[in-house]
Amino acid sequence: MQTSLILANVSKHIDLQADESDFFLSLLKEKRVKRKQHLLRENDVCLQSVFVNTGCLRGYTLDKNGYEHILQFAPPGWWIADMYSMLTRQPGELFIEALEDTEVLLLHIDDRDRLMREVPKFERFFRIIIENSLITFRQRLMENLGLPARDRYLLFCKRYPTLIERLPQKQIAAYIGVTPEFLSKMRAEMLRAR
After folding, report:
1. What's the whole-model pTM score?
2. CATH number corresponding to 4-146
3. Calpha distance 104→54 (Å, rounded)
4. Cα dihedral 126, 129, 135, 137 in deg (nearest 10)
5. According to the model, what pLDDT value does residue 190 have?
6. What is the C-alpha to C-alpha distance for residues 34 and 89, in angstroms, rounded to an integer?
7. Which of 55, 91, 152, 181 is 20 to 30 A from 188, alpha carbon to alpha carbon?
8. What integer pLDDT is reported at residue 17 of this predicted model?
9. Could you tell me which residues come within 8 angstroms of residue 7 by beta carbon, excluding any fewer than 6 positions away?
């Protein structure tokens, strides 16, 4: 199991002793996910947090017309889950799908709770992760409500610099809330304006 990336992620917020790291790693389950395979579907109860080691996931919802609304991408080093479903243990609305072959580490909610009981500093870690998620989603909501498409695209580029060339234009367009054709035209105009 590749563990250096997740341990680096944790060490941004808390310091672990060797036995605490070992206990944490013992609770993780490694999984390989094929491109277009779902880890979570609408109406599933989300029971695990997903950490991306390699590859890329996306979290999205479908509206009543079947249009995809991408809420989040999760490249290597990012966590993803349906927080509403996980915290309420109710069926959720989020799909989590692999955009390419992806290796993830899964932490079941019961193991997360056990981890926080036995290594209390993980309470701080998960609080920070949840707070950061809340801040990111609030910023994203405000961006979608108040910014023109060009600015939303530039923020996407800043937030996900490693994904600009890796993702199909359709995925980026769904994230910033425009059609692929509009995104193509806008990118061409931005290149000409340089």
Report:
1. 0.91
2. 2.60.120.10
3. 7
4. -110
5. 82
6. 26
7. 55
8. 96
9. 16, 21, 25
